[in-house]
Amino acid sequence: MNIALYLPNAERMEWWVRHLGTLLPEHTVLAHTAVTTPSDVDIAVVWRPPGGWLASLPNLKLTISIGAGIDHVAEDPQYPSHIPVLKTVGPDMVQRMREYVVLHVLRLHRLLPLLQAYQSQAIWKQPITPIAQQRQVGIMGMGGMGKVAARSLAELGFEVRCWSRSQKDIEGVKSYAGDEQLQNFLSDTEILVCLLPLTETTKGILNSTLFSSLPEGACLINAARGQHLMEQDLLDALADGQISQATLDVFTTEPLPQDHAFWLHPQVLVTPHVASLIDPVSGGKIIAENIKRYARGEKLEGMTDVNKGY
Ligand code: NDP
Fold first, then answer.
1. Does residue 226 have its Cβ closer than 6 Å to ligand 1?
2. What angle do CA 25, 27, 28 make, to 5 degrees?
3. Quick check: CB of 192 below 6 Å from ligand 1?
4. Which atom of ligand 1 is nearest to the CA of 87?
């Protein structure tokens, strides 16, 4: 089979071509720039391909996303939606997201931004924080990432609630589902974590209407996609106190432009899309294994529904 790779970064793409080529000696692995006959390509392995590129491969049978999200494929209006799309999520990625969410929920819960502000002025003050059992944490999105984060927070004692399309049954986690239960989910959520996929229905969901449904002074953690957040709405909510702190890993424009208000904002912590990066070595093995399964006609890991967008 012929496998074509697209990554926006040429150096990384060359690395992936070599890595997958070593793991799949029985197949031909090519960078998209080396594809001379598009009709020969059977499988595309991609991260943020340009719109229309996948549609230009007339015999494409399978698309594999190098990462957990498939929004970069699903948002292409020319994508032939009958061609299956796999996401790539290794156990290392799930663990990294669990660590990221626990770290930042604890940071906000234990008022570290306030303590750091005190330190910068040599102020000795000892605020007493509520314990985890008195803190309501809400997670939007209960997929592979959301579930492990919710379980870990519940084990720490937090009052955890989740919101997804369908009801979930996770020990220690209260489930809310669908648009009709969103208000109830938000109304007591003091620390809101977004782990939703980016789809037509979730784009811009973190907006002023949603912020106004949270208790005053709530905190936001967005580790999903930048386009979930209406950035100006967050700046306004931070200014008027509706949101007290935000931890942002993802942004509408990445890298975050140097003059962006988030960089130096005293109530915002910026992390450069590192919540759960794919380890290319183990991620490559998962992708290669899926390609071998496909060649043998076996069940594939990480199947998504491209029409739903996740
Ligand atoms: P999954 O596809 O496994 O799960 C998605 C969850 O979101 C499901 O629980 C689904 O509900 C819920 N959902 C989808 N649409 C809606 C909606 N309209 N309303 C309510 N709930 C909805 O996703 P993962 O857990 O694997 O990943 C989540 C996202 O995290 C990825 O799409 C990616 O964007 C982001 N991510 C970010 C990384 C980073 O480094 N910052 C790294 C990896 C991922 P249901 O279960 O009912 O279908």
1. no
2. 105
3. no
4. 26
Locate the ligand 1 atom nearest the alpha carbon of residue 201 and give its number: 18
CA of 177 to the centre of ligand 1 (A): 14
Residue 195 tokens read as 């782990």
Does residue 165 have its Cβ closer than 6 Å to ligand 1?
yes
Q: What is the pLDDT of residues 204-231, one digit of tens each?
A: 999 999 999 999 999 999 999 999 999 9
The Cα angle at residue 108 between residues 238 and 97, in degrees rounded to 5: 105
Confidence of residue 18 (pLDDT cuts 50, 70, 90): very high
What tens digit of pLDDT does each residue of 247-302 get? 999 999 999 999 999 999 999 999 999 999 999 999 999 999 999 999 999 999 99
List, edge to edge, every strand of the sheet that includes 28-31. Answer: 28-31, 2-6, 43-46, 62-65, 85-86
CA atoms within 13 A on the CB side of 151: 14
Q: Which two tokens stand for residue 28?
A: 């031909």
CA 164 / ligand 1 centre spacing (Å): 9
pLDDT of residue 154: 98
Atom of ligand 1 nearest to the CA of 177: 20
117 pLDDT band, cuts 50/70/90, is very high
